[in-house]
Amino acid sequence: MDMSQYLQVFIEESKENLQTLNENLLLLEATPEEIEVVNVIFRVAHTFKGMAGTMGFTKMQHLTHVLENVLSEIRNGKLHVTTEMLDIMFQCLDALENYVDQIINTSSEGDESYSHLINQLEAILKGDFVSAQPATKASTSNSENSSNTNSTSSNLKLPDSVEVVRKQALEDGMNVFKINVIISETCMLKAARAFIVYSELGDMGDIIHCIPSSQDIEEEKFDREFMVVFTTQESLERIQEIIMAIAEIDGVTIEDLHSVSEKSAQEEVQEQEEVQEQASNQQEQEVSAPQKPAVAPTAQKKPTKEEATNKVNVAGKSVRVNIDRLDTLMNLVSELIIVKTQLEGITETNNASNSETNYSDSVEYLERVTTSLHDAVMKVRMVPVETVFNRFPRLIRDVSRKLGKNIELVMSGEETELDRTVIDEIGDPLIHLLRNAADHGLETTKERKEIEKPEKGTIKLQAYQDGNSVVIEVEDDGRGIDVEKIRAKSVERGTPQEVADAMSEQEVLEQLFKPSFSMAKKITDLSGRGVGLDVVKSKITTLGGNVEIVTELGKGSRFIVRLPLTLAIIQALMVNISSEKYAIPLNNIQNIENIHQDEIKQVQNQEVIVLRNQVIPVVRLDSILELPSTNTEDLIVVIVKKGEKQVGFVVDSLIGQQEIVIKPLGKYLNNIHMIAGATILGNGEVALILDINTLV
Question: Using CA atoms, how far apart are residues 218 and 292, in angstroms rounded to an integer?
Fold first, then answer.
């Protein structure tokens, strides 16, 4: 029986079950004696086992079967929930997530059996289980040394399948190199840095093997080194030159592989189990990311066209829709059919006056229906932010244990809805902000006691709708941000003293979003205020939003992320600039003013106007967009607002408000930062959409 037709259903159901497991394991940790929570986890594990077995995913089925046996013993009162037992269950949850991700990418569960987890679960059942605490420093050190040995040993033993590829490449006259890369000790985003190396190598040849695995590299389950076996036509010197040109790479050693000893199948299995054990030990010490970085390397060889197509089909995005919303859509489509019939009937009548009246009525009716249809379709695309928020309790649990801090996450507004395309992209920026709040924002328990704060630090995550935008706030009650220290750091980085002194508090805080600008006194593998914030800013800006900081020294900080409800259709003000039409998103516009040329003043070489006792900078769009100037005395100024900042855009004339469909510019024009996209007007002309985040 062909099960591929049910694969998408399996993936969707698995994601829901994983989230249920996550939520209830966290609940079980808080209330270990609550048997009903155990019953829920048991039922989910049983469902998982049945689904995996039906689809033929035997490794996943075996893992959930053993987990189910442990849960059954807990239900019967023969076992009691312990911290060590919960740690293993959380590792099983991570393993199941990895299986599902592998199925999404390849339609198969992969070769990983997670035998170390199964052995630990079986030891619990037999009563032989002593402790499953996270690996000690000694074991971590051993893992690190073992990794170095695997990466640098000249007696590298390759799996049989890789050895076949190596020999074939040599027969074809290609070079085969073993490349060992050492990442800088200060690098905060090791997975991203490794991906850049993978990308550079991918342009020159094929990666046929890597240690650690691409899965571990994606999740940053490695220290500073990784090794790849690489086939290419390029020379050793050229490869070394390209890799060393990448930032935050401390060293690279390259070895020419013309003869590699083969290993037996038994040796291969034994080594694989050792690697799995080491990964498990390290995973206990690393904070597990709830979502994989989108930039991690995933393939060791280039996929065929059929494989790529299959992957797209398997990982197709879907949205679960309330049946009431579908009923509304159906009713509106019925209304469209009625309008179509009316318009067809008009052409058959001979009475000109009646035809004109009926035509006007039908067009007006059509306009109402299409507006309602647009609203209904937008609601179908909307997804509660809960789908993103529900990952974070587990994240904060792991972070708090790693840092030794007592942290409480308070979430609100999970029912707030966002467009699916925005939801898919917002997870990583929020992870950065939450880690910053936990690691750098909140004081240690000892520090909080000394300043008479509650021992438990609080991080608040809330979402709410504000007009045509959704606002997400990450707030902590920690130490706050010292603005004067940032000002001093900015001067240290090259900003002139007089410029730094003239900066407002908000302008100083904006420095935190610059690449590599960090105020962390101590570098950790989690975060430092500033590390990763440039990534957050970049991602939010790409989504058409912006991020602000509100802070009070000693009281805490609040990061405010403002996002558009949808990226598909927006309300815009159409304007003429010189001889061209442009669109300005309506949700950014404060008001429109008619002013005379004489009202524009010069302040520090910047044109400004004074409007209701406010000094507002003026931007002449024709100059920025390199268009011919009209040089009129009477000007139309569109006042736009981004956060607390206001700017006046000078335009030649107004066309009016219009609902526009945003079209991307394409990969050849994606570096034009002033333009957010394009739209096609009713007469077929193309109008560009101004990117307010860049221009303000």
Answer: 7
C-alpha distances in Å from residue 245, one per residue of 94, 174, 256: 35, 24, 21
Contacts of 680 (CB under 8 A, 6+ apart): 661, 663, 686, 687
Q: Which of 22, 68, 220, 546 is catalytic?
A: 68
Chain segment 586-632, per-residue pLDDT in tens? 877 888 988 888 888 888 778 888 888 888 888 888 888 888 887 77
Say whether the peptide bond before residue 429 is cis (omega within 30 degrees of 0). Answer: no
- pTM to 2 decimal places: 0.56
Tokens coding 51: 């689904």
Give 417-475 pLDDT, tens digit per residue. Answer: 888 778 878 888 898 899 888 888 898 888 888 888 898 999 999 999 876 678 999 99
- Cα–Cα distance for residue pair 115/121, rounded to 1 Å: 10
Alpha helical stretches, state H, 31-136: 35-55, 58-75, 83-106, 115-126
Closest of 487, 489, 482 to residue 503, by C-alpha: 487
Task: For residue 543, give the nearest of 436, 419, 452 by alpha carbon.
Answer: 419
**Pair type for strands 469-476 and 546-552:** unpaired
- Please give the DSSP secondary-structure letter assigned to residue 73: H
Of 22, 150, 180, 436, catalytic:
436
Contact between residue 98 and residue 112 where contact means Cβ atoms under 8 Å apart: yes
Nearest Cα to Cα of residue 97 among 152, 177, 33, 19: 19
46 is annotated as an active-site residue: yes
Q: Identify whether the C-beta of residue 346 lies closer than 8 Å to the C-beta of residue 358.
A: yes
**Catalytic residue check, 68:** yes
H or E stretch covering 386:
helix 386-389
- To the query of whether residue 116 is one of the catalytic residues in this protein, the response is no
DSSP assigned state of 511: G
At 175 the three-state DSSP class reads strand
- Catalytic residue selected from 13, 39, 46, 105: 46
Amino acid code (one letter) for 140: T
Q: Which residue has the tokens 């009548």?
A: 349
Reported as a single tens digit per residue, the pLDDT across 340-363 is 888 877 766 556 666 677 788 888
Length of the chain: 696
Tell me the C-alpha distance between 351 and 377, whole Å.
38
From CA 351, how far away is CA 342, in angstroms rounded? 15
CB within 8 Å of 6: residues ≥ 6 apart: 55
**Residue 29 contacts residue 68 (beta carbons within 8 Å):** no
Q: How many CA atoms lie within 13 A of 37 on its CB side?
A: 15
**Distances, alpha carbon 619 to alpha carbons 305, 411, 581, in Å:** 48, 40, 17
Sign of torsion over alpha carbons 191, 176, 275, 64: positive
Neighbours of 250 (CB within 10 A): 14
Q: Rounded to 5 degrees, what are φ and ψ at 217?
A: -65, -40
614-620 vs 606-611, strand pairing mode: antiparallel
212 preceded by cis ω (within 30°)? yes
Six-digit token pair at 605?
A: 């070489």
